[in-house]
Design goal:
The chain has 7 helices and 20 strands. It is of the alpha+beta class. It has 3 domains: about 110 residues, UDP-n-acetylglucosamine1-carboxyvinyl-transferase, Chain (Alpha-beta prism); about 120 residues, Alpha-beta prism (UDP-n-acetylglucosamine1-carboxyvinyl-transferase, Chain), CATH 3.65.10; about 100 residues, RNA 3'-terminal phosphate cyclase, insert domain (Dihydrodipicolinate Reductase, domain 2). The strands form 6 sheets. The protein has a 5-stranded mixed beta sheet, with helices on one face. Strands 1-4-6-5 form a 4-stranded mixed beta sheet, covered by helices on one side. It is globular, with a radius of gyration of 21 Å. It starts with 14 loop residues before the first strand and ends with a strand.
C-alpha cells in the first residue's frame, strides 16, 4: 500500500514507542501517558493511534507486534486490520502515515494541528433516506478478508464519539458500515461487542450505540467476510463524559447465553446448557438470547454473559478451534470450558472481565476527572492492562492537552 504523503508539519515532535515492550511513553511537560499493555502489540497500536488522532500527538512505533510470530517465522508486523485502522484514522484526522504496508514492523502516525473547519464530517458523506427529511451520515470501511471488525472499532470508535457536532451543526449520528470478520479467533466477536461492550459504554454515560448484523464473517471453516452497520452518535464538541467508577459488582442475578453452531448441534447445545445451569446455577435465571445455525459443520461459537446485581456484565466466549467430534461432546466441552472461564472471572471479584478491562482504558483517559475500574484480584497470566506508576496501591494514568492537564485516571485501587 502506498504511503500517504503531505507537506504539512506535525503538531508536535513524534514520540517513539516500542512495539515489543508495549510501553507507551510521552515524556514531556505538555502531554504525558505511560502505559504497559500486557495483552498484545495490536492493542497498543489501536490505543496509541486512537489517542494520537484525538490529541494530535504524532507517534512512531518500531518493532510493531514484535513479540508475535508471523508467517514463515517472521516477527509480528502490521496486518490488514491494523492497516485499515490507521488508514481510516489518518483520513478522518488529517494525519500523515509512514511505512503503512503489510508486515511492516514500523509505522508512523503524524496528526497535524487541525482548524475548526477541518472535521471528520467532510469524510462522512450525507445521503437522503426515503421518508426521512434529515440526511444520513455514512461511512464505509472494508478491512479485507476476515480481519476483525471489532478490533478496528476499538481504534475508530473513540474518535467518532469525541468528534461531535459543534454548535449549530447537524447532530445526525454516523451510520458506519464495516466489512470483515465478525467471528474470528483472538478478537472480540460481534456478539461480545453488542452484548457486553456496548451496554457497558451506555452505562458509563456514552450515547447509545446500535449494532446491526448484515452478514457474519467467519475465520473458521471456509473463511468468508461479513458486514455490520453501527450507528454511532457523537458527544457534542467541547463536552466529555464525567469520570466513572466501576466497583462492587454485587451477586450474579442472571446469565445470557448465545450459541451459533451447526444446525445438527443446536438441540445438543440447548439440552446441555439447560442441564448445566440447573445443576450449577440454581435460583439464577439462564436466558438463551441467540440460538442460530452457523452454516458450516466446523463453526461453533458460545458466549456466556453473567449479569450482576449492580448492572455489570462479566463474559467469556469461545470459537471452537479443535477437531470436530460428536456434537454432544462438543456441546459439553464448550459449555464446561466457557462456564469455567466465567466463574474464574467472577471469583476475581471485579466488575469486568479482563478483555473488557483492556478495551476501557482509552475511555478512562478521555473521561473528565478520575475514573476507577475494579478488575478484581488479577490471576497470573491474565491479559490485563496495567499502567506504569510509582503510586502506592494504585496505577495512575494522566493525560495532558496543550499546556493543560486533561485528566488523571486510576485503573486499580
Amino acid at each position: 500500500m502506498p504511503q500517504t504523503t503531505t507537506n504539512f508539519a506535525p503538531a508536535r515532535d513524534p514520540v517513539s514507542l516500542d512495539g515489543r515492550t508495549l510501553e507507551v511513553l510521552y515524556p514531556n511537560d505538555r502531554y504525558q501517558i505511560s502505559i504497559l499493555l500486557e495483552c498484545s502489540g495490536g492493542q497498543l497500536l489501536r490505543t496509541a493511534a486512537g489517542l494520537s488522532s484525538l490529541l494530535e500527538q504524532p507517534i512512531e512505533i518500531h518493532d510493531v507486534r514484535g513479540n508475535r510470530e508471523g508467517k514463515k517465522g517472521k516477527k509480528g508486523g502490521l496486518r490488514a486490520q491494523h492497516i485499515a485502522c490507521l488508514t481510516t484514522l489518518a483520513k478522518w484526522s488529517c494525519s500523515n502515515t509512514g511505512h503503512l504496508r503489510n508486515e511492516s514492523t514500523q509505522v508512523s502516525f503524524l496528526p497535524r494541528k487541525r482548524k475548526a473547519s477541518q472535521v471528520s464530517y467532510r469524510y462522512w458523506t450525507e445521503r437522503d433516506v426515503p421518508g426521512n427529511p434529515s440526511p444520513k451520515r455514512t461511512a464505509t470501511i472494508e478491512i479485507g478478508g476476515v480481519g476483525s471488525i471489532m478490533l478496528l472499532l476499538q481504534a475508530v470508535l473513540p474518535y467518532i464519539l469525541y468528534n461531535g457536532p459543534k454548535s449549530g451543526e447537524d447532530p445526525t449520528p454516523l451510520h458506519l458500515t464495516v466489512m470483515g470478520g465478525t467471528h474470528v479467533s483472538k478478537a472480540p466477536t460481534l456478539d461480545y461487542f453488542s452484548q457486553v461492550f456496548v451496554p457497558t459504554l451506555k452505562n458509563l454515560g456514552y450515547p447509545e450505540i446500535t449494532v446491526r448484523e448484515i452478514k457474519k464473517g467467519w475465520g473458521t471453516g471456509p473463511t468468508i467476510p461479513g458486514e455490520i452497520e453501527v450507528v454511532i452518535p457523537s458527544i457534542p464538541a467541547g463536552t466529555t463524559i464525567p469520570g466513572f467508577t466501576m466497583q462492587e459488582p454485587g451477586e450474579i442475578v442472571g446469565y445470557d447465553v448465545t450459541f451459533v453452531v451447526p444446525e445438527d448441534a443446536r438441540r445438543s447445545f440447548r439440552e446441555t446448557l439447560n442441564v448445566w445451569f440447573e445443576d450449577r446455577a440454581q435460583g439464577v435465571d439462564m436466558n438463551i438470547v441467540k440460538d442460530e445455525d452457523s452454516g458450516h459443520g466446523t463453526r461453533f461459537y458460545l458466549l456466556m454473559v453473567a449479569k450482576t446485581r449492580n448492572g455489570y456484565r462479566i463474559a467469556r466466549d469461545w470459537i471452537w478451534d479443535r477437531k470436530k467430534r460428536d456434537v454432544h461432546q462438543v456441546a459439553h466441552d464448550m459449555t464446561r470450558k466457557v462456564w469455567g472461564w466465567v466463574q474464574e472471572e467472577i471469583e476475581h471479584g471485579g466488575c469486568v472481565d479482563h478483555y473488557l478491562q483492556d478495551q476501557l482504558v482509552i475511555y478512562q483517559v478521555l473521561a473528565e476527572g478520575q475514573s476507577l475500574v475494579d478488575g478484581g484480584a488479577l490471576g497470573e497470566g491474565s491479559l490485563h492492562t496495567q499502567t506504569v506508576s510509582e503510586s502506592k496501591g494504585a496505577s495512575s494514568f494522566s493525560a495532558y492537552r496543550g499546556n493543560r492537564r486533561v485528566r488523571p485516571v486510576v485503573m486499580y485501587a
